[in-house]
Structures are given as C-alpha cells and as structure tokens.
Amino acid sequence: MPTDAQRKPPGRDADFVEQLAAANLHPLWDRFRTLTPVRPQAKDPPLVWRWADIEPFAGRAVAQVPIDDVERRALILVNPAFGGETVTTNHLIGAFTILDPGDRARPHRHTFAAIRFATNAEGAATIVNGRRCEMREGDLILTPPMCWHGHINDSDRRVTWFDAANIPLIRALDANFFEPGDPSANEFWQVEDGEEKLWREAGMIGMDAPRLPAHSPKYHYSGAAMRRLLAALPPGRDGARTARYVNPVTGDAVMPALDCYAMRLTKGQPMRPRRTTCNMICLVTRGKGRSSVGEHSFDWSQHDVFSIPHWNFASHQAHEADADLFIVSDRVAYERLDLLREEFQ
Ligand SMILES: [Fe+2]
C-alpha cells in the first residue's frame, strides 16, 4: 500500500516546495489563483474624511509647525487599510494644505504629479515654472512632473486648499526624483502670470504652440469657467454631468498619470452605479449628498473628501440642492496601460 505522502500529487510535497524556495524558485501551481485573480480586489474600503474633523487639526498645524521649518504644511488623508503607509487610496494621496498670512511654501520640483484645488484660498497663489497662478474658489492648479513650484499666501487671512498627488504610484515604481529650490530666492516669487496667458481662452491656441511636453502647457484652470461648463453640460450615461480637465493641445488628460474631473449632481436625481478599474478621490466642492461605494453608504457635505477604490460600484445623489464634486484619479495611467475597464450595474 502506498503511504499518504506517496499518494500526494507530484509537486505538492511540502519538502519539495521548501527545497524550491531554498533554490529561489516558487511553484506556480500552488499560488496560481493568488497571482492571477479573476478580478481586481481593492485592499481598501471606501473612506470619508470630514472637513469638520480636519479643520481643528489644521489650526493646530499652523500653531505648531512653522512653514520655514518644513517642506510643506499639509495634512494627508490616510486609509488605515494600507497598514500605516501614507496612502489615501491606491496610487493616490489627497491632503489639505494650510498657510497663514505671509507664509511661503518653498520652491521645489519632483517627478510625481500633483494638483491643488482651491477650497478657501482666495489671496494665495501657486508659482509654477515662473507663472503666478491665483487660487480663486474652485480653481485647479497643476504642478506637473519636474515643474518648479512654490506657494505663497499674500492675503491677510489663513488659507486652505485641497492637494492630490500620485506619490504612491511613483513610489511603487521607485521613479521619484526630487530637487529642492532656493528658499531665499526672491525672484522665484516676483513673477506675473507669464505664458499662462497663452492658455486662458478655451478653444483657441497659438499656431505654433509647442506639442512637446508630456503634460498640459496650461497650469491654471478657472473654477468659474468649470462651473459655467457644468451648467451647460447634458447628463452623461450615468445621469451626472461630468467634465474632464484636459491638455488644450492634445485633448488628453492633464498629466501622464494624474487625471482630473468635475461632476455636477442634480438634486434628487439618482445616478446609475458604475465601476472602473481606476481609483478616485472625490472632494465635495458644493452641496450635500450621499454616496454608495461597494457595500458602503455615507453622507457628505462641503469640503468632505471620500475615496472610491477600484472596481467598486459607485453612485452619488445630491440632497436639498445640486452638488458638485472634484475628482482626481489615476484613470489616465490605466488608459495608457490598456487596463481601463468600466461597466454599469
Ligand atoms: Fe511639490
């Protein structure tokens, strides 16, 4: 009679697997399902960060952290599902930056892509590659890869804005480079809007506009202009009115691996749930409502932030009045890798 060990199918012997491991080899057959899951499975559940909970910490950060002592005074939104890693949802971080009157967040540049969305930043400006970009309500400012940038609060009041970046993606690729600027270089701050003027008029560009940069040549997207577009847009297939911020030369996403959208939800209008392989962070820019993401449902109001981890059906509904969301995503990275899939429920 064969022993139990002899009855095992070849290759399932624990000693054999150990011997393979000792030789720096893994058997595909005992981990095939782990290595090739039948569908994506986000490790993070959706999470909501409420502005009412963040705001007191913003005040404490200003009191305790002098801007001259740090690279940036930002509070990063973290999902504990990532085990202590500084991640909001896959590939992305969201944050809020706080500057007191006169604060300057020193110049630097890096290969990760970042954006600022002005929630309460009137009187502040971001300088990007020698262009001064004012931060009026709802304005989006790009800080594309390897563009020099710094922030200044020229107003007499505290300002805050929402930041997002693809730091976790670039860290996973181990492709970040970082260069500090000179914090004492006054000429960095003494600039006007410069070539940003070339990109202010929608639908019109100079005949010889360069096509070289991998990112949008326009860094400043007006909140007022986006609100006008959202008011004119018809509802999309999911029932929401959604606009994409694009590179005005190519019509593609604003940056190679970071993508931005604005969405208007009509009061009381249900939205058809959809899911996609990419990840999203949503900032509530106006109004109140409720979202369902996967098995979770939650309410939100102005300046709350929530995540939509990949391959979860998501839908949103505005209460009391229309509501607006600003959405930052890694969608363009999935498009470029031909890994973007979307479906409706
Ligand atoms: Fe930066």
Describe this structure as you would to a colleague:
The protein has helices at residues 4-7, 14-22, 32-35, 51-64, 167-172, 186-189, 223-232, 331-336; strands at 48-49, 74-77, 93-99, 104-110, 114-120, 124-128, 131-134, 140-143, 149-153, 159-165, 178-180, 220-221, 241-244, 259-265, 274-276, 280-293, 296-300, 305-308, 314-329, 342-344. It is globular and about 70 Å long. The protein is α+β, with helices and mostly antiparallel strands and 345 residues long. It has a single domain (48-344), classed as Jelly Rolls (Sandwich). The N and C termini lie far apart (55 Å). Helix content is 17%, strand content 33%. Strand 6 and strand 7 form a beta hairpin. Bound molecules: fe (ii) ion.
How would a crystallographer describe the biggest sheet?
A: 7 strands, antiparallel
Mean pLDDT, to the nearest integer, reads 94
Low-confidence stretches: none
Radius of gyration (CA) equals 23 Å
Q: What small molecules are bound in this structure?
A: fe (ii) ion
Order of helices and strands: HHHEHEEEEEEEEEHEHEHEEEEEEEHE
